[in-house]
Specification:
Layout (H helix, E strand, L loop, with lengths): L3 E6 L6 H12 L3 E7 L1 H7 L8 H9 L6 E5 L4 H8 L3 E5 L6 H11 L4 E5 L7 H18 L6 H6 L1
Length: 157
């Protein structure tokens, strides 16, 4: 049986944790599909807007050598995504393992014949931590009267 893997994620501010997830996923399947969550799907799940636009996140993920296909995920309906893509293994970070949302995920996919595989979450680096750092830098720049990140490039032209 061909193992078709699916690794969903936002993949915003692409970092080593994303790369680790995709590499480990590819080691455990024959064909890896990376599902890049669309902004509206993410905003419905969390109150977060990605820094990097969807088209750019797709392009970045599409060019990771471990990824066979990168597709936008435009629905919160997991069964609908499964019907469209036909994967039989789902990869997630182990921050989901043992949680209510992880157990619900496992039940939903077990009913569809999909195995859920967890990988160690990269604690040292996360998009949330990177986003907080950027916000802190921006706040410091505003307090000091320095140009806000990104504005100095516009002023230089």
């Amino acid at each position: 049986m061909v193992r078709i893997g699916f690794a969903p994620g936002v993949f915003d501010l692409f970092h080593i944790g994303h790369l680790n997830l995709l590499r480990q996923a590819k080691e455990r399947c024959d064909y890896l599909i990376a599902g890049v969550l669309a902004d509206e799907v993410l905003i419905r799940r969390k109150p977060v807007t990605p820094v990097i636009p969807l088209a750019e996140r797709l392009e970045i993920v599409r060019h990771v050598r471990f990824v066979d296909a990168a597709v936008p995920v435009t629905s919160n309906d997991r069964a609908e995504v499964w019907r469209e893509l036909g994967f039989n293994v789902l990869f997630k970070g182990d921050d989901w393992r043992g949680t209510e949302k992880g157990e619900q995920l496992e039940r939903e996919f077990a009913a569809l014949g999909v195995r859920v595989v967890y990988f160690p979450y990269t604690l040292a680096t996360s998009s949330s931590a990177l986003r907080r750092t950027l916000q802190n830098i921006d706040a410091l720049a505003r307090r000091s009267g320095s140009p806000v990140l990104g504005n100095d490039a516009a002023e230089a032209t």
